[in-house]
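lol ok so funny story. i was supposed to be doing the assay writeup but got distracted and ended up predicting the structure for this chain instead. priorities right. anyway since i did it might as well share w the group, maybe its usefull for someone
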Amino acid sequence: MQTFYRQKPTWTTCGELQCATLTVPVDYAHPETGQTFTLPLARSVTADPAQRMGSLVFNPGGPGESGVEQLKSGGLSSFSERARARFDIVGFDPRGVAGSKPAIDCGSSDSADQDQPESDSASTSAYPKTGAERSAALADAEKQVASCKARSGAILPHVGTLDAARDMDVLRAALGDEKLSYLGWSYGTYLGTVYGELFPHRVRALVLDGAVDPSLDWSEAALQQGKAFRKSVDDYAQKCATVVHDACPATTPDGIHKVITDLHRRTAKHPLRIKGTTERLDQNMLLAALTKSMYSPESQWQDLSEALRAARGGDGTKLAEIAGPGISGKSATHVRSAQGDSSDTGSDPNTAPEQAPGNSSVAITAVNCLDQPHPRDPQPYWDLLERANQEAGVFGTSAVLAELTCKDWPAGRQQPHRVNAEGLPPALVVGTTGDPATPYQWSQGLAAQLPGGMLLTFKGSGHTAYGRGNACVTNAVDAYLIDLKPVPSGTTC
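and the output, tada:
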């Protein structure tokens, strides 16, 4: 293991950043086999070396989001000027993700979808009730598992968060830092929590924004997230006029609800046309567009409103653009989604290096299935569907269906548990009251489990808080990261 810990990355200029790679063992139990992952790194070096305190490592979420691409595409703006002046900001691609070599490869679902006849575009129901619908959902899930095992079977048991956290300690040593300063958004909070459990005495500061509660099992997490997304869509209907004014798809909250409800019913039976393609906007694509648009209301509700107006007239093109590629026939809800996966910061093609191929849609499944034990029999999923439908409608059922692939996935070693991190210094948890992807109660739960855990509450809508321009949040987080200043209990922004 010492060979890995003694690495000195060779940093080269890549646009306005510096880039390097890190080598880590595929299997920490048997590092002597010589099998390794090569992980891309990127950093923004502080402008004033005299003020530099060390490195601030971050993870943008997912699981499956690239920290390297986050920096290359403008993600540095998520960090305050004060933080950038004191730390080198360091992003990395976790094992199996994006530019990692090897990376998780499950084949292209797009090509398979293109071969389907137009009439079958809504064959996978967002709420399968009949035997035929459930058989189709099972077949879809089993097909994905088989494809992943065929292409990436050797690495699938080794892409979980336990191993990713060990990688982060190798990274800490390679950066020359005696202790880790870390900021994780969304899934990144779980990665930071696991690191804190494994290496409590190697932590300097942990900021966990939009927290995952490790004590929840797969069913509790799916239900709570489904309810949170439904509430966020309700909030959109209530607050649309305040945020986007005349662009709203209807003039009253009830009218907006009616537009969305009518589209759910319509797309379930008669998918909408998408210009320039034979594909159609089905109910799952509508759900994807709605859920993705709940992450940053200030930047996304305008586009959603215009897309819903167009869809009301029969044109699903704008909603399909929001949903993104490869969504048709798949569950729309992404568990533990990324802080920055919905922002459009753009990048300068003249300075930014070529972007690594993304595999976030399969990585999120690979990591979640390995991190959480799931039933091998389909019946518990069908039983949970009934409750999810009652409590959260299609947002609940889609969250449950997202877990169905895990039925046949390789099993990991993690179990739902309360945090065990004796010796961990006080960590800062940031929770947003209207967070759809990581509900606020998860942040409350994690803060209560961490020794000396502090909770900073942001009253607002959207996913996560730091980096969204709220000065109160920014100042509190920066004071903790730089000066280790405690956040008093009950602090609210």
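The chain is about 40% helix and 15% strand. Residues 25 and 34 are 7 Å apart (CA to CA).
back to the writeup now i swear
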